[in-house]
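Summary for the steering committee. One of the milestones for this cycle was to obtain a three-dimensional model of the protein with nicotinamide-adenine-dinucleotide bound, which we needed before selecting residues for the alanine scan. The sequence and ligand used are listed below.
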Amino acid sequence: MNAINHVNETRIASPVVHRPLSYVSPDSAWSIYLSQVERVLPYLGSLAKWAETLCRPKRALIVDVPIEMDDGTVRHFEGYRVQHNLSRGPGKGGVRFHPDVTLEEVMALSAWMTIKCAGVGLPYGGAKGGIRVDPKQLSRKELEKLTRRYTSEIGIIIGPQRDIPAPDVNTNGEIMAWMMDTYSMNTGSTATGVVTGKPIHLGGSLGRVKATGRGVFVTGREAARRIGLDIEGARVAVQGFGNVGSVAAELFAQSGAKLVAVQDHSGTLVNGKGFDVPRLIAHVQRAGGIAGFADGEPADNESFWDVPCEILIPAALEGQLTAARARRTKAKLILEGANGPTLPEADDVLNDRGVLLVPDVICNAGGVTVSYFEWVQDFNSFFWGEDEINVRLDKIMVDALSAIWETAERHRITLRTATFAVACERILMARQERGLYP
Ligand code: NAD
């Protein structure tokens, strides 16, 4: 049994926020983030004096994004860019196009970017952006207008040295190319470094597409080694077979593990002998989902959480691992490929049951790490080969997990709280060293 199972960290801490923000509600994603910061207070020593810095975004910009639709009408969309913390470097974080996006959600996502970047040791602060829109309802031309107007509106706070957006839910390389072009037109430059996740011929990086899944695999491999779990022959269950889940599954299978259960929006399949992962990926590319793949037994969606496995990878949506599902899972190791897949009560259940969880803020940080490589390559106008990128990614993830593991053992806390502890210490140290202006 590893030393950081059944840890006994403080679950109720004194509130860190002296005066709650007037513009957030108590049950938002932002309040989950605040409760995670509160858990870390006992481990911050004298730096705790600066902790309230983390409980307020440095800057939150709300913008009106009007566009003329194809039918000649004018519609207004609500857009945001939040820079949560810039103590360690320029802001970094994606842009989400979704009808349910809210300021509070963007604030929480920006704060998790601050933690993620500091936890991995990247020289960035945290930021996030979004537009309340269902992009599927827009034509390509309308989507381009929306992206360009939004980029112009947030142009007063973004830039290669200030805040660097990237793709997130419903945004992609093409949208990043429009953002890069709009910012470049407005500044009279060719500013490739203003966004990451760009197409390769516009200053994008090799290895970016698979980077998050690769990071999930690397942190999983290291965590498994430390708890004496052999990947060779280990049974893996993956929820979400998109960019993150399929790449992680492929890399585990290449290391001798067996993908025994997979779930996506189209259903759940099980195969005790192990799926042929490249064939499953090819099927999903053709069919749009796992449903209909011949080499697996369809199963009830809820039964996915009972499947006998050693490694469970939630790589789809937030809030999937509830306390009830956490009580049922057979997994010894959980790798959070998705952002926020585990509810706070489930975290405590897993800890009490001795199940090791590698949290999103380190587990899926491979994507932002290769985004960082893209930004560095853009500045140098010199591009690396894919092998070099993968080797560098591996080293950064291994070193990051190692520092977090050591902190978890030292304080006998979970890997989530340890990641927050390592990250918050780095952020607040920078805050303290920079001093308060004026
Ligand atoms: P994706 O769109 O490529 O894949 C999402 C997968 O989830 C698909 O297989 C989809 O079918 C599945 N899914 C959707 N609804 C589902 C449901 N109700 N039940 C089960 N499965 C469902 O997205 P992605 O890029 O792989 O991202 C997955 C998660 O990882 C998200 O939480 C995202 O925020 C997070 N993440 C992604 C990256 C990245 O670089 N892509 C980086 C960090 C975090």
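Key point for the committee: The chain has 13 helices and twelve strands.
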